[in-house]
Every structure is written in structure tokens, then in C-alpha cells.
Amino acid sequence: xxxxxxIIYLLLILTACKNHSENETPKTVDTFVQGQITEVKSNNEAxxxxxxxxxxxxxxxxxxxKCGYLxxxxxxxxxxxxxxxxxxxxxxxxxxxxxxxxxPVFLKIVSKSxxxxxxxxxxxxxxxxxxxxxxxxxxxxxxxxxxxxSIAYFAANEVGYKYDDNPxxxxxxxxxxxxxxxxSEITRLKLFNKIxxxxxxxxxx
Length: 205
What we know:
The protein is mostly helical and 205 residues long. It has helices at 2-50, 64-72, 82-89, 96-112, 115-131, 133-140, 145-162, 168-176, 183-204.
């Protein structure tokens, strides 16, 4: 009788262990599969953002020069995203070849900019003119008066913000940096500065 009870007791234990094991295994598999699904979904979302023109990270996996080329060809539209800001910032690169390539890209971007992007463009103009004054003065000779005026208006936003009471302080500093400029470069630079000061006065009215 005792042996029968022992056998029955052992069978109950084995059955309980088997049921416990069967119940636990699917949970482990389910968790693993769910992890795979989440990872695949995350990877797909990352890839989608690189091809979504509305994403800040649009085309950031492309070489920047390729993005610049696409801007020049009007294949993509400038907006307040990473590649647009990086292209604009490249006009102040220490590498002249980089500046030479991206200056026309910059002109294309600002010619199509609006809203928040227009507000940001001024800081890039200001930085470039401050760091490469003679180069800018030289480039400005090949710009139309309307293009020069457009760039000056972008710069006026930033100069007016930083030198609100005395914008001439900045424009005089720029002229001082161009003492080795020729007369034609000085003339263009003075025109650029004049437009900035006048634009700031207009903003105040």
C-alpha cells in the first residue's frame, strides 16, 4: 500500500514538472521572436527615415558632395534638415576645394530657402565672410546685384541680431580684413555692407 502511494506521488511530481516545462518553453520562444520583430522594425524605420524627404536625416547616408550635386540639379529641395545645414556650413571649410564646390550649392539653397531655413542662412553667410573676406569679395564680383543683395539680406538678420545698436561695427571689421583686396573687391564689399545696414534699418521700422 505504501509502495502504491509512493508510485502515485512520483507520477504526480513528474506530471507537474512536464506541464511546467511545456508552459515555460513557448514564453522563451515568444520573447526571442518578439525581439527579432522589434529589431527588424527598427531597422526598417531607420532606412525609411533616410529616404523620407520630411525626415531630418534624409539622405545622410549619402556622401555630402552627392547631396550637393542633387541640390544643384534641383533633384532635391533644401529644407531645415541635416544635409542642407551641412552643405551650407561647407562654405566655411578649411579646405578651399570644398569651399569652391559648395559655394554654388549654397547659392542654390538660399535661392530656394524660406521659413526657418532662411533664418539660419544668415549665420552661415556671416561666418564665411568673416573667415574668408577676400575670397568672398572676389566671388561677389561674379554675382548678380540681386544675388549679392539676397545674400546681404540673409546676413542682415544675423548681424542685426548681434550688432543691433551698431551694425557698422561689424561692416567696418569686414573692410579692415580686406586691406589687401583690389579696388573692385572693395567696391563690392562696400555695396554688400551698405545693403546690410539698410536692411537692418528697414527691419527696425
